[in-house]
């Protein structure tokens, strides 16, 4: 069997196009554009690329991008004061502080300072709690993008066995919550799990967010299963995921490639969350 390749690039483009169309309607109705503020501290080259791409995607969707670049030696107080200004700024619907922050800054304190109703990254504990109890909030962009890709393959997720490999706060845990909300039977596998492939081999859905190149092998996948590979690992052989793609694609029913799978969905979901935030703040119905 050869798996269907899930085209994340095409899905992301379609979502961005839908958001851009709705942003135009929002602007006509409210007389303003949704705004996303992105804060970058320091010179980390990968972070600089992410911030540039996020700014471009924001502008492409017809939204305002407010970019704040601060030197690496910025103090926590200066950063917290900027976050407070952005919280109070009515033109700002979403605030994103690019991680990782320099070691001398308490990243948790900065994330806590962001107004949860402008936390379009969904990293604030209030939004993690809202997700856990099924209340309206913001869901982290990467797992939200994974869910959208999964829903395209499985319009009805209820009852499916899902295994999430990884339990980070930004991917694994919110992914598991989202799948639970969809009535999947969810297992979370992590570094202390005794029999990782015993679990993945039973799963209708495997979401891999481990950070180890090609960790999930082809024979760990149940024939016909759907495999979502969140991993982005830079190796001598280029960019690879957390799944052995060539082997898994022989067994799976559908699989995301790396690159071109989950990655493009993350920014598209950030744009979506910013539009949704603007709608909530202006009391306009979000249509997507
Ligand atoms: P973390 O390093 O925060 O978490 C990795 C998880 O994998 C941990 O929960 C860890 O378990 C688990 N793990 C590690 N080793 C094993 C093992 N041998 N068996 C089972 N589980 C194991 O990573 P992230 O969640 O932040 O990211 C995961 C991957 O996704 C990375 O490659 C990252 O680059 C990528 N990523 C991609 C994004 C995108 O836009 N596409 C966005 C975010 C991340 P434990 O908790 O026990 O240590």
UniProtKB/TrEMBL annotation:
Stated EC number for the protein is 1.5.1.5, 3.5.4.9
Amino-acid positions noted as binding NADP(+) in the UniProt annotation, renumbered to this chain = 166-168, 232
Instruction: Identify the residues that the record assigns to the Tetrahydrofolate dehydrogenase/cyclohydrolase catalytic domain, covering every copy.
Output: 6-121
Q: Which GO terms describe its biological process?
A: L-histidine biosynthetic process; methionine biosynthetic process; purine nucleotide biosynthetic process; tetrahydrofolate interconversion
Listed GO cellular component terms?
cytosol
Q: Please state every residue range assigned to the domain named Tetrahydrofolate dehydrogenase/cyclohydrolase NAD(P)-binding.
A: 140-280
- Has the keyword Hydrolase been applied to this entry? yes
Tell me which InterPro entries the record gives.
Aminoacid_DH-like_N_sf, NAD(P)-bd_dom_sf, THF_DH/CycHdrlase, THF_DH/CycHdrlase_cat_dom, THF_DH/CycHdrlase_CS, THF_DH/CycHdrlase_NAD-bd_dom
The reaction(s) catalysed by this protein are: (6R)-5,10-methenyltetrahydrofolate + H2O = (6R)-10-formyltetrahydrofolate + H(+); (6R)-5,10-methylene-5,6,7,8-tetrahydrofolate + NADP(+) = (6R)-5,10-methenyltetrahydrofolate + NADPH
The biological pathway it contributes to is: One-carbon metabolism; tetrahydrofolate interconversion
* Keywords linked to the UniProt accession: Amino-acid biosynthesis, Histidine biosynthesis, Hydrolase, Methionine biosynthesis, Multifunctional enzyme, NADP, One-carbon metabolism, Oxidoreductase, Purine biosynthesis
- Please list the GO terms describing molecular function: methenyltetrahydrofolate cyclohydrolase activity; methylenetetrahydrofolate dehydrogenase (NADP+) activity
Organism domain of life? Bacteria
Question: Can you tell me which family this protein belongs to?
Answer: Belongs to the tetrahydrofolate dehydrogenase/cyclohydrolase family.
Check the record and name the NCBIfam families matching this protein: PRK10792.1, PRK14186.1, PRK14188.1
Q: What does this protein do?
A: Catalyzes the oxidation of 5,10-methylenetetrahydrofolate to 5,10-methenyltetrahydrofolate and then the hydrolysis of 5,10-methenyltetrahydrofolate to 10-formyltetrahydrofolate.
Q: What quaternary structure, including any partners, is listed in this protein's UniProt entry? A: Homodimer.
The name this protein carries in UniProt is Bifunctional protein FolD
Designated gene of the protein: folD
